[in-house]
């Protein structure tokens, strides 16, 4: 358990006026921090030194955000390889390992270094949105093992001074009871699981508005949040907190409450939207890859490619904040996809399926059903296989490799899936 921050520390953590500085001041301020960060990373993280040396760029050659184009983007695939050849952090860690608060392991597998700075960044998000508040009782209904999800939120809630129920995922009926008995004010989970809890409550005869003290729920991690957001707001009268972040980076961007996109979290990182082919920054409203440079003294990733495709606007938001906004996340670039809040690499899917030799060809179909991600796996097999046993074997294998259940395995005769068919079809857009 992390200790609660003092009121003085909390008030230093969030300064709204800083977020509303004029765009030209903001650009200057960011350039200055970028120069210091690149110098720090070059001197303290061997992988960054190597990156610059190979590109033939000296730290003094990066003076502005535009200069970052001189450096290559480190993709998620590249990070996996760097971590494999130089475990655990591929040369990006700038502090001794045992000074980290937490080390998480995300699918890939990728080691994620979490220092206190990332957790305080989440606390800043709470202060910005005004909720949760110290004294709130929060149900954290997301995974606690390996991945930065439940524990990260618990750490931040501890620092703010909330009471946490580490509920995890599952046991929906029990979660409803706890929500009711403890008069919990917030659920932190993936929107689809929060929806499952609310639906279960209704099945159990509760009226969510009347019988609970629930005020806030979190969004994020799933693509269809905009659909669910409306339901949470209109049907249940809840406030929805949203942000954009990744396991490798922590918080990258946040919704100011107006639902007009995600402002760059520029105290913690510098965001570029770049052409995935050339690595050059694209103009506003053009799609490109979200590439992030962390202002971290712990894990100073430079130009890390998230694999997410997005567009941005630099128009000042009606809230007065000058940080550009990611207007929308459009999907994934290349070899990853995100489903049920988990990041899955194509290689992991191939790995899982290679252990099922009865399957001659397969195709995963991702759909949205009742506001939830649903995974169907179409498989081609020889006639006469034991479909129940094979279904179970496939599911076990998928859970072992990327921790996700397949909702339905559909058996098809040989030849039904064309050889050139995509391995993953995403119909959720
Ligand atoms: Zn705003």
What attributes characterize this protein structure?
429 residues, alpha/beta, seven-stranded antiparallel β-sheet, 20 strands
Task: Outline the structure in words.
The chain is an alpha/beta fold and 429 residues long. 33% of the residues lie in helices and 25% in strands. The chain contains 13 helices and 20 strands. It has a seven-stranded antiparallel beta sheet, covered by helices on one side. Strands 4-3-5-6-7 form a five-stranded parallel beta sheet, with helices on both faces. A four-stranded mixed beta sheet has the order 19-18-17-20, covered by helices on one side. Strand 1 (102-106) and strand 2 (110-114) form a beta hairpin. The chain is globular and about 65 Å long. Bound molecules: zinc ion (ZN). Zinc ion binds next to loops.
The number of distinct helices, counting runs of at least 4 residues, comes to 13
Bound molecules: zinc ion
The helix content is: 25-40%
Label the overall shape: globular
The main sheet orders its strands as 8-9-10-14-13-12-11
Average pLDDT for all residues: 92
Major sheet: 7 strands, antiparallel
Low-confidence stretches: none
Tell me the span between the first and last alpha carbons: 40 Å
Helix/sheet category:
alpha/beta
Oligomer: single chain
- Percent of sequence in beta strands: 15-25%
Determine Rg (CA atoms, Å). Answer: 22 Å
Would you count the extended β strands for me?
A: 20
């Amino acid at each position: 358990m992390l200790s609660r921050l003092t009121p003085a520390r909390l008030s230093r953590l969030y300064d709204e006026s800083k977020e509303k500085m004029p765009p030209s001041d903001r650009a200057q301020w960011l350039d200055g921090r970028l120069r210091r960060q690149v110098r720090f990373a070059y001197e303290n993280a061997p992988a960054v030194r190597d990156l610059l040396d190979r590109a033939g760029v000296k730290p003094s050659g990066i003076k502005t955000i535009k200069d970052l184009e001189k450096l290559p983007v480190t993709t998620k695939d590249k990070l996996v390889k760097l971590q494999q050849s130089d475990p655990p952090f591929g040369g990006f860690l700038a502090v001794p390992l045992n000074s980290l608060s937490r080390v998480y392991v995300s699918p890939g597998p990728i080691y994620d270094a979490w220092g206190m700075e990332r957790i305080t960044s989440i606390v800043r998000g709470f202060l910005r949105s005004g909720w949760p508040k110290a004294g709130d009782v929060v149900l954290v209904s997301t995974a606690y093992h390996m991945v930065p999800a439940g524990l990260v939120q618990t750490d931040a809630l501890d620092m703010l001074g909330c009471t946490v129920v580490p509920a995890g995922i599952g046991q929906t009926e029990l979660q409803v009871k706890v929500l009711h008995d403890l008069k919990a004010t917030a659920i932190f989970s993936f929107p689809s699981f929060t929806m499952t809890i609310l639906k279960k409550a209704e099945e159990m005869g509760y009226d969510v508005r009347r019988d609970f003290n629930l005020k806030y729920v979190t969004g994020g991690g799933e693509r269809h949040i905009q659909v669910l957001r409306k339901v949470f707001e209109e049907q249940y009268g809840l406030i929805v907190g949203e942000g954009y972040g990744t396991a490798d980076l922590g918080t990258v961007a946040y919704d100011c409450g107006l639902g007009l996109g995600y402002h760059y979290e520029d105290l913690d990182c510098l965001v570029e939207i770049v052409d995935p082919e050339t690595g050059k920054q694209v103009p506003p409203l053009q799609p490109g890859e979200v590439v992030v440079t962390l202002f971290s003294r712990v894990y100073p990733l430079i130009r890390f490619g998230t694999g997410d495709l997005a567009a941005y606007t630099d128009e000042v938001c009606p809230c007065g904040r000058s940080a550009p906004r990611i207007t929308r996340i459009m999907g994934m670039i290349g070899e990853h996809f995100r489903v049920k809040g988990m990041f899955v690499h194509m290689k992991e899917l191939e790995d899982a399926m290679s252990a099922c030799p009865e399957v001659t060809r397969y195709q995963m179909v991702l759909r949205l059903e009742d506001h939830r991600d649903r995974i169907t796996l179409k498989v081609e097999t020889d006639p006469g296989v034991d479909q129940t046993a094979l279904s179970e074997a496939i599911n076990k294998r998928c859970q072992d490799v990327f921790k996700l259940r397949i909702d339905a395995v559909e058996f098809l005769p040989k030849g039904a899936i064309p050889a050139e068919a995509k391995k993953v079809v995403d119909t959720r857009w």
